[in-house]
Amino acid sequence: SDSRAREAARARNDRLTKPPGALGRLEELAVWFAGWAGTERPVLARPQVAVFAANHGIAVRGVSAFPAEVTAQMVANFRAGGAAINQLSAWAGATMSVHALDLDRPTRDFTTGPAMSEAEVVRALETGWTAVDPEADALVVGEMGIGNTTSAAALACALFGGAAEDWAGRGTGIDEAGLSRKVETITEGLGRHGAALTDPLEALRCLGGREIAAMAGAIAAARSHRIPVVLDGFIATAAAGVLARAAPGCLTHCVAGHVSAESGHRRLLGKLGLDPILDLGLRLGEGSGGALALGVLAAALRTHSGMATFDEAGVSDG
Amino acid sequence: SDSRAREAARARNDRLTKPPGALGRLEELAVWFAGWAGTERPVLARPQVAVFAANHGIAVRGVSAFPAEVTAQMVANFRAGGAAINQLSAWAGATMSVHALDLDRPTRDFTTGPAMSEAEVVRALETGWTAVDPEADALVVGEMGIGNTTSAAALACALFGGAAEDWAGRGTGIDEAGLSRKVETITEGLGRHGAALTDPLEALRCLGGREIAAMAGAIAAARSHRIPVVLDGFIATAAAGVLARAAPGCLTHCVAGHVSAESGHRRLLGKLGLDPILDLGLRLGEGSGGALALGVLAAALRTHSGMATFDEAGVSDG
């Protein structure tokens, strides 16, 4: 991040026609964004939402309230414009791209072996990396993948410790018996891979999914392009968590868009030291909470870059 | 509110391509709005932000971090497009109107007598009532008035009980000594008017300000026109509080846009049973938090009215 632009933005913020600090979180967001944009008065002209979809071997274990074919059906829905993320991307003024990763070839059930081979996880990371428009000025990554809260919970547990129960939640709305199967599946997976999981990228390969790897690749690419990222929910944050464990401090280009109703998300944000912008009880994924927060970021930049200063407006500054 | 439209919207919400409840607060907002709009698939086409400004006699008591002339300076800033609310209204796609109420004639210092005469409070209520565009499909009311957190705190205390300390906050950023003067001023005002304050409209006349009365008039007019209202911060909510005490149950057309950093606001929302949409540490007024939440409401309506149903998209519904 460009500290000169950030400091110039902070100085501008102090001269805007409002009491100091009166725009709260909006002020912090604008100053943070200015550092990544490298300019005192940034605008949001070309935000991107990238949605990644993949299928999970562990879906056969009955860990979701929906059947696995819903992943492909929802990809078709994304492409036809019928999903929540289509509406929210349009609302936020963002372009939206959809990336289906080998839907007809689910990852391996991670209780029986690594979810992905080396080649598979590298390919998924690359898909994410190359999905990022280098000219975008903000990025949201989202996902779709029946079974992926189980994968994300296993990954979070491997990365940040605790028990499967701490990270397993209701996902799309599974019942008590399904939640028990979810906890068992996670516990079994963690036992199966053991010490290999101390390497964050190996944990991603063993327990993750293609869409999770792709989101990690996209978030890393965004940093390389100096594009700020607004994180979505539990699964996108788990992808960010892999990077945080692999390269501590590498998420300063990310903010947490929201905290979801999926129980592990608040815990995961805490581990990453991220304070969510919104708390609206969402638990959809797709990038939905990230896109909503992208709208709030746009509002923050409009106030920061568009307001008059005390001098310009002839207002007494207290 | 139209219960048939609301139930039709609820049924539509249950058929949209997402797990039930996965859009959290957005779903509730859309169903609530549908009832007021009287249609199953409402849109937000013509939202209005109305900002009211007035001056307060109690400003002479040193209860604000800013001098009283800032009210008129900020009205000029609103008209020139330089304030936060100009940017946030534009961001939310709302028209914005500014209403200055006799700025050269502050209300009376309420520690020496009623802030307004009968004629003055009626005129302010009417200004608010007529400021509402009957064709608007959502309304945010905002305010500007140096000293008005003191007026709002005194009013909240009269309406909902407790001590001056419970309701007095830092406003635009006053120091410890200023806060003490604020608490004293409120306590003195409450003592001065005594039993008259049990009548909510009389409390408004004795302790309020013209902009507060105007906001109350506008919120009442919105109900008469069946226009949903997104409340802003402490002062706008105090105006709504007058109506709630005068006619219990009359605020079902209102949602709380946000909870501000002004300490009394959370308490006041609690008294009114309102759950804020946003919590971003704002403490600016002007309608700023209301306009931000108006954007979230627009997003909620876009998902509700724009998404495909399970049948339309050919997605298995679990």
UniProtKB/TrEMBL annotation, chains A, B:
Enzyme's top EC category: transferase
Residue numbers annotated as active site: 286 (proton acceptor)
Record's keyword annotation contains Glycosyltransferase: yes
A Pfam entry, by short name: DBI_PRT
Keywords in alphabetical order: Cobalamin biosynthesis, Glycosyltransferase, Transferase
CDD domains in alphabetical order: DMB-PRT_CobT
Keyword Hydrolase belongs to the record: no
This enzyme's EC code(s): 2.4.2.21
A single MF term (Gene Ontology): nicotinate-nucleotide-dimethylbenzimidazole phosphoribosyltransferase activity
BP GO terms, sorted: cobalamin biosynthetic process
Catalytic function, reaction form: 5,6-dimethylbenzimidazole + nicotinate beta-D-ribonucleotide = alpha-ribazole 5'-phosphate + nicotinate + H(+)
Pathway: Nucleoside biosynthesis; alpha-ribazole biosynthesis; alpha-ribazole from 5,6-dimethylbenzimidazole: step 1/2
InterPro entries reported for this sequence: Nict_dMeBzImd_PRibTrfase, Nict_dMeBzImd_PRibTrfase_bact, Nict_dMeBzImd_PRibTrfase_N, Nict_dMeBzImd_PRibTrfase_sf
Top-level lineage group: Bacteria
Protein family (similarity comment): Belongs to the CobT family.
PANTHER family with a match to the protein in the record: NICOTINATE-NUCLEOTIDE--DIMETHYLBENZIMIDAZOLE PHOSPHORIBOSYLTRANSFERASE (PTHR43463)
Role this protein plays: Catalyzes the synthesis of alpha-ribazole-5'-phosphate from nicotinate mononucleotide (NAMN) and 5,6-dimethylbenzimidazole (DMB).
NCBIfam families the record matches: cobT_DBIPRT, PRK00105.1
Protein's name according to its UniProt entry: Nicotinate-nucleotide--dimethylbenzimidazole phosphoribosyltransferase
Native species: Wenxinia saemankumensis
